[in-house]
Design brief:
Peptide Deformylase, five-stranded antiparallel β-sheet, 33% strand
Length: 177
Amino acid sequence: MAVREVLKMGDPLLLQVAEPVAEFGTPQLDALLKDMFDTMDDYDGAGLAAPQIGVSKRVVIFGVEANPRYPDAEHVPMTVLINPEISANSPEMESGWEGCLSVPGMRGMVDRYSHISYRGFDAVGNPVEREVQGFHARVVQHECDHLDGILYPSRIKDMRYFGFEDVLFPELSVPKE
């Protein structure tokens, strides 16, 4: 389909609560998901929420195999999650660096639940339900925040741990040509 422009922090649509998806298996939903996967792949993302490409629907995708933006990340299966619900399986939180396609070039230290359950639906309305931890749990929480109009910088507790990737992690920076 198409690689879409990713909205950047400051766009008012990113601050809205997204609407639930009412119908599954439609050509419109299939086209949205294809565009989301094309966009996530083109931007080397670990996940993407529909509001990030200008569609205010409760749809997220995520998955990581080998990703240059997250070289040490564990494998996360490619997943479509529609109308998601998340619950913490324990009160334990874990701090970790996060980036976002809507906040390009920056990273911040964010606390997230370390062990969660999530449920929702796939593209045709089949239930999806998993219990996860670690990076997988972080990605799901980050992407689902987008559906509620929350960007990760608002979750940073100490702004000393928010900055540009090339300054924070020069060893990961790609040399400029």
